[in-house]
Amino acid sequence: MKRQDPYQPQPQHKFSFGLWTLGNRGRDPFGDAVRPPISPGQIVEMLAEVGAWGVNLHDNDLVPIEASAAERDRIVRDFKKACAQNGIVVPMATVSLFFHPVFRDGAFTANDPEVRAYAVQKTMRAMDLGAELGAKIFVLWGGREGTETDGCRRADEAVKRLREAVNYLCDYSIQQKYGYRFALEAKPNEPRADIYMSTTGHYLGFIPTLDHPEMVGVNPEVAHEHMAGLNFMHAVAQAWEAGKLFHIDLNDQAPGRYDQDLRFGSANLKSAFWLVKFLEDVGYDGSRHFDAHAYRTEDYEGVKDFARGCMRTYLILKEKAASWNADKEIAAILAELSSAPKTTPAVGKYSKAGAAKLLAHVFDKDAILRKRLPYERLDQLTVDILTGVR
């Protein structure tokens, strides 16, 4: 009897892809498309074939920006039918506020009040579309919310405009009873020279200033933090600890490069491992969304290979994380690292008595320094597990 592939994706893994990912035709700033266009329905069929659970979309990935109301309704009806026939759900929707030239100076933060109003209107209609398809997460990526010269506006004015827009959209969701949770996505640069909310940390500082902070979290993306040379898992961990990890975009990226959107785990395998381990250890139960593209050299069979590879790598690393957690030598190292004499004062919630005890305690710094911190061994054990020799 043929053994079942342990790395075959299942619905409970909640793997999703965007229409714009599998439908990416390989166009870049220096070359035209290398793959023919395919319809949203064909993408849904492809996702079902490779074993994905969900499909996400920008409004104009599905409905052309100039479509009439009748055309829009027909397109949506056909798409819902395709999703139902293929067992694919729509967990997240978003809006394109970056592609059309009208957004050349940004959307919510643009200087022109008419552009800002249009951006909010377009987002409301994208929310209507997502709600009709069953989405409960709405991602906002400020693709052109930035500058080439800071002479164009005061940066604090941009923050105020962004807050005003997000507050408006939260109130619209409440009024329409959509039940959305908004996930804000950061990026340091590209396509503007400088983006206002450039890291996940910027958004975590911004969210408490909103009228409905409970409705708003973040959507960190691997490539966007790695572009700036940052540790993505640390950003995810801070978002999780704050209760704001509403969604996540998985791909890969070489630090310091343009936005590459590589197959998950294909560039920084150890970083991908720590990320998967963190998500699985804390019990993250949201979508594992792959916002990545197949190589420009591929045809659509290669695009399927790319999609399968994203999911397979995640599941392999999930298995490796379980092995890491079960390893007795690793467990012993971790226990020793956290050990201390029983007389060590506890530092937790402040109390007057506790503070007095801490101040009176005499620390033996030489004894503390004699304690080993075997991080070299710990890291090599991790490499051994990842390379399959342990």
Can you characterise this structure?
This protein is of the alpha/beta class and 390 residues long. The protein folds into two domains: 11-326, Alpha-Beta Barrel (TIM Barrel); 328-387, no CATH class. The chain is 47% helix and 9% strand. It has an eight-stranded parallel β-sheet with strand order 8-6-4-3-2-1-10-9. Strands 5-7 form a two-stranded antiparallel sheet. β9 (249-250), α10 and β10 (288-290) form a beta-alpha-beta unit. The two termini are 28 Å apart. 35% of the residues are buried.
- The number of distinct structural domains comes to 2
As for the CATH topology of the largest domain, it is: TIM Barrel
The counted number of beta strands is: 10
Tell me about the biggest sheet?
8 strands, parallel
Structure annotation, total helices: 15
CATH architecture of the largest domain: Alpha-Beta Barrel
- Rounded radius of gyration (Å): 24 Å
Distance between the ends: 28 Å
Query: What average pLDDT do the residues reach?
Result: 97
